[in-house]
Amino acid sequence: MKKNYVKSPLNYIGGKYKLLSQIEPIFPKNINKFVDLFGGGLNVGINVKADKIIYNDIINHLIDLFKEFKENSLEDILNHIEDRIDEYELSKENEFGYKKFRKYYNITKRSLDLYVLICYSFNYQIRFNNSHEFNNPFGRNRSSFSPALKKKLIRFINALDKKNIEFSNKDFNKFDISNLSENDFVYCDPPYLITTGSYNDGKRGFKGWSEKEEVQLLNLLDKLDENKIRFALSNVLEHKGRVNDLLLKWSDKYFIHELNSDYSNCNYQTKNKSIAGSREVLITNYRTTSNNKNNVIESSQLKINII
Question: How far is it, in rounded angstroms, from Cα 4 to Cα 234?
C-alpha cells in the first residue's frame, strides 16, 4: 500500500518529497534521535518515525518559521494569515499590495508574515538578497493562499504538533555529534557540488557550497561511521555530463542506492545507472536487505584520506 506522506507547505528547492517513497523505506527502524542535518523544507523529518527529531538548517528564517508553526495554535496561525491577506488585499493580481507587504516584512521580519509572502510570490519560492531581505518577485496570476495550499498547511501543522522536535540553527560542521549513539541516525541532504541553484550559489546572504564544504561533510560522515552511527546521504554522482569524482571515490566504501529521479520506480544498490543524464543516489553506511530487518551497520572500515 502506498504511504501517504505529509508534504511541506514550502516550495523548497531540492526538497525530497517526491523521492520519499524511495528513500524513507531505506532508513533504519527503531530510531532514537533522527538528525536532519540540512533540514530545508522539512519534507523528510516530518515523515520519519523517531523518538526525537532534530531539525537543523543554516537559514535562520526557516527555523523561526517552523517554530511559529510548532508553538502557535492552528487557529491563531490561520487567523494571522487571513488577517494579512485582508489588510494588504493580497491576490493573484494585486502586485502593489504584495510589494507593500514585502517592504513591511523586510522591516519587521515576522516569521508568519514570511509564509504569507511566500504564498503570493513567484513559484512560491524563498529568496533573499545579501542583506537577508526577501526579494522574490510577485507571482502574478499564479500564486495565492489557495484552498489546496491551506489544506496542505493544516495537515503539516497537525503532523508537526505530534512530533517531538528540536530546532537547531548551525552550520553542519559545527553541529555537535558527540551526544549521538548507535541508536541514532543522521540524514544529510546538502547542496549538490555539481549543480548550482539559489540555495548554494553563496549570493543570497548565506554560505555557499564548494569542494571545501564537500570534503568537510564527507569527513564528518566518516567520523559518524567510525563511531558506528548510521547515516544516509542524498546526492548526485553524475549530472548533465559532470561527475562528482570526489564523492564517487569516497562512496566506494559504503552502500549506494540508485534512485529514479523521475520518481516513478526505483532500483536499489545497482551500479552504472544513468537516468536522464543525472545519477541520483542515497549513500548509506549500512546494508538494507530482507535478511537484515534491523539495518545493522555492515560498512567497510577502509577509509580514504580526502583531506
Answer: 21
